[in-house]
Automatic annotation (TrEMBL):
<dbReference type="GO" id="GO:0006542">
    <property type="term" value="P:glutamine biosynthetic process"/>
</dbReference>
<dbReference type="InterPro" id="IPR014746">
    <property type="entry name" value="Gln_synth/guanido_kin_cat_dom"/>
</dbReference>
<dbReference type="InterPro" id="IPR008147">
    <property type="entry name" value="Gln_synt_N"/>
</dbReference>
<dbReference type="Pfam" id="PF00120">
    <property type="entry name" value="Gln-synt_C"/>
</dbReference>
<keyword id="KW-0067">ATP-binding</keyword>
<protein>
    <recommendedName>
        <fullName>Glutamine synthetase</fullName>
    </recommendedName>
</protein>
<feature type="domain" description="GS catalytic">
    <location>
        <begin position="118"/>
        <end position="464"/>
    </location>
</feature>
<dbReference type="GO" id="GO:0005524">
    <property type="term" value="F:ATP binding"/>
</dbReference>
<keyword id="KW-0436">Ligase</keyword>
<dbReference type="InterPro" id="IPR036651">
    <property type="entry name" value="Gln_synt_N_sf"/>
</dbReference>
<dbReference type="InterPro" id="IPR008146">
    <property type="entry name" value="Gln_synth_cat_dom"/>
</dbReference>
<dbReference type="GO" id="GO:0004356">
    <property type="term" value="F:glutamine synthetase activity"/>
</dbReference>
<keyword id="KW-0547">Nucleotide-binding</keyword>
<comment type="similarity">
    <text>Belongs to the glutamine synthetase family.</text>
</comment>
<dbReference type="GO" id="GO:0006576">
    <property type="term" value="P:biogenic amine metabolic process"/>
</dbReference>
<feature type="domain" description="GS beta-grasp">
    <location>
        <begin position="11"/>
        <end position="110"/>
    </location>
</feature>
Length: 464
C-alpha cells in the first residue's frame, strides 16, 4: 500500500483511540466488538479472524440443533475472515461519536464470500444486476412497539403484561408523541447524525407503536441503514426508559409490525428509472406506467415468492402477522395501489415517473433486511432474465384462491418449499446458502414445537 493511502486511512481516524466493527448474522443481529485503532488499521488489507460461532447459534446464542458446514462442533468453530468495508464508515453520536465500520465475512482459505453472509449475498445479487446495466434502489418502512420496561423487568415479568409506552389506538396522532417528546425527537435527530436520515416518523395504530420511513437510496446502503436503524432505535430507547420491539406480532388482537420495502431499478448508463413506462403509452390498462423490465421483475418476484417466504417471514411469530383483515397479505398477488396485495405497484399519477416503484408488503419488521432484499432482487432478476409474463393484477381484496395461491401458513411449511430441489431460491441464492439457512429455520421450528405455551396451559391444564 502506498504511503498516501496509509495516511488517508490514518487521517480518517486521526482523533480516535478505538473503533467499533460489526457484521450481520443470519437473524439480522449485529455482532461485533471494539478494536484499538492500531489493531483496526493493521487488518484493513487482509481482514481479521472472527469466530464462526456467530453463524452457528441463534438469537439467544443457543447452538443450532443441526450441524452446519460453516460452524459446529465438527468444524471446531474456527474463525471465518472478516473484511472491513471502509465505505460503511459512520459515527455513533450516542457513544461518544465512536467510529463504526461494517464487515463482510469470507471463507478463510479461499477468501470468497461466505455463503451465509447476508451482506455478501446482497452484494452478489447487486453485482448480477450491474452486469445487466441496472442498479437497485430501496427505501424501508418499519413499525415497532414500545414498552416502558427494562431488560430486567422483561425477565421478571416473563414477557407478560408489559406496560405500553402509551395506551390506546392513536395512528398519526400529534398528541401521543408529546408524552415522549425527548425520545421522539432523539430518534429523528440522532439517526440523522448517525447517517440514517428519516423521511418521516409518526405514531401507528396500536399501543405505543411508531412507524419510520427511511430515505430512499442504493440497495446496499439502504439495507445497512435499515439494519443499523433497528439497533439504533433499541439503544436510543433504552436511554429513554423504553424497550423497542420489532417483533412481527406481539399481540394476537392487534395489527402486526410491518417492514415494507420500496424497490426500483435504475439504468446505470442514463441514471433514469428502469421501471418507468413509456410516456406516450396509454394511461389505462393493467400495466400502464410500467416498463417491460418492471413487468418482468414483478412477475419474477411473484413466481419466487413462495420459495423465499421463509426469508421474508423468518421467524415462527412472523406467520401470526400474515392473516386476513390485519393489513398484511396472505396470497401471491400484485395490485396497483392495492395494500391488500403482496406487491403493491406505484405508478403515475400516484407518483412521478422517476418514482415508479413496487412495495413488498409481505415482509415484517423482524426481517434480516440484507437477506430479504437479496431474495426480492434475486427473484425479480430471475423474472427479467426469463422475461416472465405478468399475470393480471387483483382488484379489490387480494383473497387467496385458485389464481392467487395462499402463502405458507407457518415457518415449517415455508422452509420445506425453500429447500425443494428446483426451488427458485436455490437458483437465485445458491444451494449453499439455502441449506445453511434452512437448518437455522428448522432449529427455530424445533424449539417452538418442543415448547409448552400459555395457550396450552390455559386450554388443557384444568380440563384435560
Amino acid at each position: 500500500m502506498s504511503r498516501s493511502a496509509i495516511e488517508r486511512r490514518s487521517e480518517l481516524l486521526e482523533d480516535d483511540l478505538q473503533v467499533k466493527v460489526a457484521g450481520v448474522d443470519i437473524d439480522g443481529v449485529l455482532r461485533g466488538k471494539i478494536m484499538s485503532k492500531k489493531k483496526f488499521l493493521s487488518v484493513l488489507d487482509d481482514g481479521f479472524g472472527f469466530c464462526s460461532v456467530v453463524f452457528g447459534w441463534d438469537l439467544h446464542d443457543r447452538p443450532y440443533v443441526e450441524k452446519t458446514s460453516i460452524a459446529s462442533t465438527e468444524t471446531g468453530y474456527g474463525d471465518v475472515l472478516a473484511r472491513v468495508d471502509l465505505n460503511s464508515f459512520r459515527r455513533i453520536p450516542w457513544e461518544n461519536n465512536i467510529a463504526l465500520f461494517l464487515v463482510e465475512f469470507l471463507e478463510p482459505d479461499t477468501r470468497r464470500p461466505l455463503s451465509a453472509c447476508p451482506r455478501g449475498l446482497l452484494r452478489s445479487i447487486l453485482g448480477e444486476l450491474q452486469q445487466l446495466g441496472l442498479e437497485a434502489m430501496c427505501g424501508s418502512e418499519f413499525e415497532f412497539f414500545h414498552f416502558q420496561e427494562t431488560p430486567r423487568t422483561l425477565v421478571e415479568k416473563e414477557h407478560q403484561k408489559l406496560a405500553p409506552m402509551t395506551p390506546g389506538m392513536f395512528g398519526y396522532s400529534l398528541l401521543r408523541p408529546s408524552l415522549q417528546q425527548d425520545y421522539y425527537y432523539a430518534l429523528i435527530n440522532e439517526c440523522r447524525q448517525f447517517g440514517i436520515p428519516l423521511e418521516a416518523l409518526h405514531t401507528e395504530t396500536g399501543p405505543g407503536v411508531y412507524e419510520a420511513a427511511l430515505e430512499y437510496t442504493g440497495a446496499l446502503e439502504a439495507a445497512d441503514r435499515a439494519q443499523l436503524f433497528k439497533t439504533a432505535v433499541k439503544q436510543i430507547g433504552l436511554r429513554h426508559g423504553v424497550i423497542a420491539s420489532f417483533m412481527a406480532k406481539p399481540y394476537v388482537d392487534q395489527p402486526g409490525c410491518s417492514g415494507h420495502m420500496h424497490i426500483s431499478l435504475r439504468d446505470i448508463a442514463t441514471g433514469k428509472s428502469a421501471f418507468a413506462g413509456d410516456e406516450n403509452a396509454s394511461a389505462f390498462g393493467a400495466t400502464s406506467g410500467m416498463s417491460e423490465v418492471m413487468q418482468w421483475f414483478v412477475a419474477g418476484m411473484l413466481k419466487g415468492l413462495p420459495s423465499v417466504l421463509a426469508i421474508l417471514a423468518p421467524n415462527v411469530n412472523s406467520y401470526k402477522r400474515l392473516v386476513a383483515n390485519y393489513w398484511a397479505p396472505i396470497a401471491v398477488s400484485w395490485g396497483r395501489e392495492n395494500r391488500t396485495a403482496a406487491i403493491r405497484v406505484i405508478t403515475p399519477p400516484s407518483c412521478s415517473r422517476e418514482s415508479t416503484r413496487l412495495e413488498m408488503r409481505v415482509t415484517g419488521a423482524d426481517i434480516n433486511v440484507h437477506l430479504a432484499l437479496a431474495a426480492c432482487l434475486g427473484c425479480g432478476l430471475y423474472g427479467v432474465r426469463h422475461q416472465i409474463a405478468l399475470p393480471p393484477p387483483v382488484t379489490g381484496s387480494a383473497e387467496a384462491g385458485d389464481e392467487h395461491p395462499r402463502l405458507a401458513r407457518d415457518l415449517r411449511d415455508a422452509t420445506a418449499i425453500l429447500t425443494e430441489p428446483e426451488s427458485i431460491a436455490r437458483q437465485v441464492l445458491g444451494s449453499a446458502f439455502v441449506d445453511h439457512y434452512a437448518a437455522t429455520r428448522r432449529h427455530e421450528w424445533a424449539l417452538w414445537a418442543d415448547s409448552v405455551t400459555d395457550w396450552e396451559l390455559k386450554r388443557y391444564l384444568e380440563l384435560a
